[in-house]
Amino acid sequence: MLGDDLLAVRSYSPPPPQSTKGWKEKNAPYVGKAIHCGNRYVLQVKSLSAQPWVIKQATLEGPNGEVLKVQRLGFEKGKRGAPWDINAIVAEAPPGLEVSSLKLNLTDADGRVAQLEVRGLP
Description:
Elements: E1 8-11, E2 30-37, E3 40-47, E4 55-61, E5 67-77, E6 85-92, E7 101-108, E8 113-119
Antiparallel strand pairs: 1-2, 2-3, 3-6, 4-5, 4-7, 5-6, 7-8
């Protein structure tokens, strides 16, 4: 961003309603936005639960088993009274690799786990 590179951004809608243990109905974690710049990907993961869900460990895997290096995790409680927890994941793909989908394995400090898949990455 500081180098004024072009950013590819994609927004995703929440998944259809489902009951998921540990999450309020309809509000299990999902990828809300994805940004791609060079070999870096930034993913926004939104969730809603009784207790804040702060990702402490993440693994991201490409469609052919490539593992992206997670460089940074961030968390923000919803602003202005919004109930959503928002986690950000900054990951780096191996040089020259462009991925169109990712499998995410995410773990919180209290042991809650989410396995997500995001397709159609920018």
